[in-house]
Amino acid sequence: MSTARTYNQDHIPRKYVRGKRRVTIYWTWSYPWEAGRDPAAMDNRFSTMTEVRTVAWPVYETPEWGADRFQQGIAGTLELFHRSTLSFQQIVGEVTGNPVAVFQRVDQAGFMLPLDERILADADTLMVFSLDHLLSGQEASPEEIAALNEWLKREDTCLLLAPHHDVGFTEDLKQRQVEYEHHGDRLVPRQQRFSQYARSLMKALDVPVINQWGLRPAVVPGTRNFAPLTTNRDLDQLGLLNNVTTFNFHAHLPHYALTDANADNVHLLARQPIDPDRPHPFTAAGNKEFNCLIWLPPKGRRAGQIVLADSTNFTTLFGGTDSLANFWKNIGAMKLASSAAGRHQ
After folding, report:
1. H or E segment at 269?
2. pLDDT at residue 318 tops 80
3. What is the pLDDT of residue 32?
4. Rounded distance, CA 255 to CA 274, Å?
5. What pLDDT shows up at residue 222?
6. What is the mean pLDDT of residues 150-163?
7. d(Cα 141, Cα 157) in Å, to the nearest integer?
8. What residue segments make up the domains of the chain, in order of their start?
9. Is 70 exceeded by the pLDDT of residue 207?
10. ω before 58 within 30° of 0 (cis)?
């Protein structure tokens, strides 16, 4: 029997144990802003649960998803994201011996929690799940950036940034339709732009990356299995790719484009092949893969690691495999910064 669930309580700090990481998830959205979007809006909103049930029918046609037990508006879809990380939280908790703490920038009850010492003090790995729509205006304050820079001076820290897709950023409606037909997800509007909060952190921390597009991964011909990652395992000094061949299948994943080709401390660890049978401006430009896992080793005063990977790789909402579970275990068992090579001065 699982333990009872709690709600609306203060976080109890986890004690430091050498070699045992304390992992924290920080959802950057304003839950009330996202849940309160007008369902009549065509773009830049999450689906309602009713829309999810309609498109995914009959997956959610069981009593636990009915209106008497589960929210049917946009809030229901946000709760699906929360529920979808429970397996990740369980596996990482078993690896580390510590529960995974979960915070929201603005939660269901309207409490705002900026990124500060209350979150950072007992975190060794901070996972920033930036599923905030650009329109919501979530942006890291100078105080938050200062707190994060101070935290990153600790040698056992790892900041995992997870900016999501940027679909339909153009005013060209024909291109928006091409992008929509490429990913094929009826629950994603022609324009859905995410991750202003993560972008503000990347700018402040000199991470030369921008999240672009929403790209559909390729599958192995003749099967429904997604194509293996193209990896640079010789660069993977943190062991993130140990026993990992694929991530999650999600129909619209971001390309982590490098904004400074000359940056010598940015290591591209993995790329994902793109579905070649669905036209897209990115593939029309000659690209066959997109960047999906990046590592920035310590540099200068920053003793902590920085990793970029999409938040959907830590959920079961879009399926899951043994390879994905291995990736989660690697996150939990990540080597301490002091023992990982590759530090830049």
Report:
1. strand 267-273
2. no
3. 98
4. 10
5. 82
6. 96
7. 21
8. 26-339
9. yes
10. yes
DSSP category for residue 336: P
What pLDDT does 14 receive? Answer: 95
What is the rounded distance in angstroms from the CA atom of residue 84 to the CA atom of residue 320?
Answer: 10
**Residues 306-318, mean pLDDT to the nearest whole number:** 91
Query: In angstroms, what CA-CA distances link 163 with 293, 311, 326, 329?
Result: 12, 7, 22, 21
pTM of the model: 0.95
Beta strands 125-130 and 166-167, pairing class: unpaired
Contacts 24+ apart (CB under 8 A), 94-99: 95/328, 95/329, 95/332, 95/333, 96/20, 96/21, 96/22, 96/23, 96/332, 96/333, 97/17, 97/20, 98/14, 98/17, 98/20, 98/21, 98/22, 98/23, 99/14
CA-nearest of 106, 104, 93 to 14 is 93
DSSP H or E segment with residue 331:
helix 322-332
**Average pLDDT of the residues in 243-255:** 94
209: closest CA among 328, 103, 306? 306
pLDDT(338) > 70: no
Give CA 286 to chain center in angstroms: 26
